[in-house]
Write a structure and sequence with these properties.
The structure is a single chain. 40% of the residues lie in helices and 0% in strands. It is mostly helical and 148 residues long. It starts with 14 loop residues before the first helix and ends in a 10-residue tail after the last helix. The protein has a domain of 99 residues.
């Protein structure tokens, strides 16, 4: 599947433009608030690898997180978007303007999430979605740990 590049649309605080794009008062109110509310991460947010470690710890997993170059990833694990484009998000504005703060500490939220996921497993899991042999080949292993 080819990488999809989307055109960049700059956010606007221009009230005239918002009035043209959002004819209903509710839409205009939402559009003014949207940049404050959506798409943010706290200044101390973990990296993707750190998130994986934190979720793993909350689940009692003691594995290792290893980053592989894109060209060594099995086809099923190659991202379907352009990872060369930086994605920068920030929640300072919602924290400052609306006084937002997480209602639950991160470690407790992760613990609760793992517990909920374990209590509510997906009804249908397609085993074909997991190609562990291809992952082992990508890591240069002939068998997964625990096999043999």
């Amino acid at each position: 599947m080819p990488v999809v590049k989307r055109p960049h649309v700059a956010p606007t605080d221009d009230w005239q433009q918002l009035q043209l794009l959002a004819p209903f008062p509710e839409q205009r109110a939402y559009e003014l608030l949207r940049p404050v509310v959506l798409f943010g991460r706290p200044p101390d947010a973990p990296t993707e690898a750190e998130w994986a470690r934190l979720v793993g710890q909350a689940a009692g997993w003691d594995g290792e997180i290893v980053a592989l170059p894109r060209d060594r990833l099995p086809e099923a694990l190659v991202p379907r978007f352009d990872t060369a484009q930086p994605i920068v998000t920030d929640t300072r504005r919602i924290r400052h303007e609306l006084g937002y703060a997480e209602p639950v500490p991160r470690d407790e939220a992760l613990r609760r999430t793992v517990a909920w996921q374990r209590a509510h497993p997906p009804a249908d899991v397609d085993p074909a979605a997991f190609d562990y042999v291809a992952e082992d080949v990508a890591f240069g292993r002939t068998a997964r740990r625990g096999d043999a």
